[in-house]
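Comment thread on ticket #2218

A.B. wrote:
> Attaching the input chain for the structure job we discussed in standup.
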Amino acid sequence: MGYDMYLVHSPEGEDAAYEAASRSFDAAVEHRDGLDLPYDHPQYQALQVEVVRAYDAMEAVRTAHFHLTTWAMSECRALMDHFGMLTATQPPDRPAPEEYGTTSGEAFAAPPGDTAPFAVQRFRQALQARLSWTVPQPQGIAAHKLGGDVGWIITPVEIHTALTAYETSRAANPALLSEVIEDADWWPAWIDYLKHAAGHGGFRAYGPPVT
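C.D. wrote:
> Ran it. Output below, let me know if you need it in another format.
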């Protein structure tokens, strides 16, 4: 349970590399479990080491994904707000399929891509435009985009302005950053992910709504 972030555009070759690493991990697990050994058996323990190694290799490949628990995201929003990285904006209303000459049922059942009816394609484009919407000159990341399961798109310009605000704020109080990292050891990795995402079309965020 928590929040999952995915780059809009994965780095070249990463998806294929991740699939290959996933197959290696699955094979290691299948081999370990196929021997049906007790957990404390030396051979099981040796195979478990291989499983862990394969899992770590799989995760190391996947730079497109970042996960935060629900609690960590709550902390993350608070920290980003403190550093001036978030802005309060009201997104446009969700478009209605009827405005585009289709229905919810037709839009749900239609195939993806260009094979869908033209009206459905226009409706889906409107949905995507809403998810990536931002004010003309954003001063950070729209806070509402870090909550909800619809896949809000945090755009590169939002990320760049948020990182600029962060650099300015952290420079004014460098001692605070040490305290932050001590309490939230994932924070440096989060900042690195934001920088990474800015060069790959931004990222989509999925998670439970903010209450």
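A.B. wrote:
> Thanks. Noting for the ticket: Strands lie at 2-7, 65-69, 86-87, 141-142, 152-154, 203-206.
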